[in-house]
Structures are given as C-alpha cells and as structure tokens.
Specification:
The structure is a single chain. By secondary structure, the chain is α/β, with parallel strands linked by helices. Helices cover 37% and strands 23% of the residues. It has 2 domains: 169 residues, Rossmann fold; 75 residues, no CATH class. A 6-stranded mixed beta sheet has the order 6-7-8-3-9-10, sandwiched between helices. Strands 2-1-4-5 form a 4-stranded antiparallel beta sheet, with helices on one face. The longest helix is centred in the C-terminal third of the chain and has 14 residues. It is globular.
Length: 256
C-alpha cells in the first residue's frame, strides 16, 4: 500500500467552548486532489491553518511524506515541500507580478528582505519566478503591478507564488473565491494541469469546481469528518445531503 502524502491522526483544535476540529483522521494519497467541503463554521480553514503550521493543534498528529511535522513551524514545513494559498489574497499590490513570485522564492530560501533590491536581478530568484508565472498562464504579465491584475489573475498569482517554492503538496484555501464563472473555469483548468505533479488539498465552496477536480472529497460538519469518498459516493450520501445541504436531493451537490 502506498504511503500517504499527508496523514492526519486525531487532530483537535478548540477556541474556548468552540470545537473547530474534532478528533479528525484523514489520509491524503500522493498526487490526488482531495477536496474538503462543509458548511460555514465546519472547521475547514482551521484545518488548513493546522496543516500549514500557522495554528498549533491542541491534540493529534500530522505526518508529511512519512515525517512527523506536528511541532514544526510554517517555514520548516515549507522547506519540506508544503505550500499554502490563503482565502483572502495575500500579495504585495505595489510590486510587479514577477517581484511577488521572486519574493516567495527568496522567503523560501530563508534570505532577508533587506537584500531585496539587489535580489531583483538575481537569476536564482528571477528564473524560478518566471517559470512559475509561465506555468499558470501569466508569463506575459510579469512586469504588471499586482494591483493592475484582475481578481482572477491575482488568484493565479498566488498559485504561482506557492509553486515557486517547488512544493510537493499544496494547501489551497478557496482559490475560486470572488471569481466569476469564466475565471472559475480558467482556475479549474489550471488546477487540473497541476494534477499528478502535486498533491493538492482543496477547500472550495464552488461545488461544480469541486466535483470537476477532486479525486476524493471529505465532508466536515462541526469539525468532524462525516464522509470521505469519491465524488459519486459523496453525491449519493444521504448523511451528507442531510447534514451539509439540508436536502435529500442529490442534484444539489454539484452537476459534474
């Protein structure tokens, strides 16, 4: 049996009396796109924060590529090949697209931002930055200030910043947030192009995108996984329809 790319064992996180993740167990297979869905307040973003190292868990264990990373910091996890994008765009608006990605490369390498000016011409930063921009379809937009990019392009830029750190696993928190239909389709195509080269944990409210992309889906409700399976299994699961969608109709869970 293939070893899990990411293994979550008994993960718990509470904020006072609010339980955000509750004894969560989950294996993410290498190369798969694994979507995490659930209603608002289900604990999805808390889980991503725990996996990235942004948030320390109360209990439980996280293993990445067979290594216990439970107590590791975000930079240490990044150095091992784990990258995260955020629900709210986190780019430097006054910098060009290329400079944003080069900054991600520089940060991953552990260099100080005090050396940013000369680093703008450093091919060790510029080359991987250009490569990442080209891969997500922004190769001709490198010199454009991030503030002048469309919302969809800014979300693509965040993916490029994550890819520039050469991760094996991507944690994507609502990459389609705020996008129109055409932009969402473009993002789906982009993520499908990454499939197999990277393991992806995807949080997304766009159910059409989830069912178009995911190999497997886990449904969270009040911090607990109530179902994990292939998209067809999730679409047909009565407990999912009742707890997540409040309906018995399978047609409400995506059209893909």
């Amino acid at each position: 049996m293939t070893e899990a790319a990411l293994r979550i064992e008994g993960l718990c996180k509470s904020f006072g009396s609010l339980v955000a993740t509750d004894d969560l167990h989950l294996d993410i297979a290498p190369g798969e796109i694994h979507a995490i869905i659930g209603p608002n307040g289900a604990g999805k973003t808390t889980l991503i924060a725990q996996l990235s190292g942004e948030l320390r868990s109360d209990r439980g264990r996280v293993s990445f590529a067979g290594r216990d990373i439970t107590s590791m910091s975000m930079p240490a996890r990044s150095a091992l090949g784990l990258a995260r994008s955020f629900q709210v765009t986190s780019i430097f608006q006054d910098f060009s697209a290329l400079d944003n990605v080069a900054l991600a490369v520089q940060a991953q390498a552990g260099h100080s931002f005090h050396f940013w000016r000369p680093a703008q011409k450093d091919p060790r930063l510029q080359d991987p930055a250009r490569e990442a921009l080209a891969r997500i379809g922004l190769g001709d937009r490198g010199d454009v200030p991030a503030a002048n990019l469309s919302h969809g392009e800014q979300r693509q830029l965040e993916i490029a910043m994550a890819l520039a750190t050469r991760p094996s696993l991507l944690l994507l928190d609502e990459p389609m947030a705020g996008m129109g239909r055409d932009e969402s389709r473009h993002m789906v195509d982009l993520l499908q192009g990454l499939k197999g080269d990277h393991t992806i944990v995807l949080i997304e409210h766009d159910m059409d995108a989830v069912f178009a992309l995911a190999d497997r889906i886990t449904v969270l409700v009040y911090g607990r996984a109530i179902a994990t399976g292939a998209p067809a299994q999730i679409r047909a699961d009565r407990a999912v329809r009742a707890a997540y969608l409040g309906t018995e109709s399978s047609t409400d869970i995506g059209d893909a």
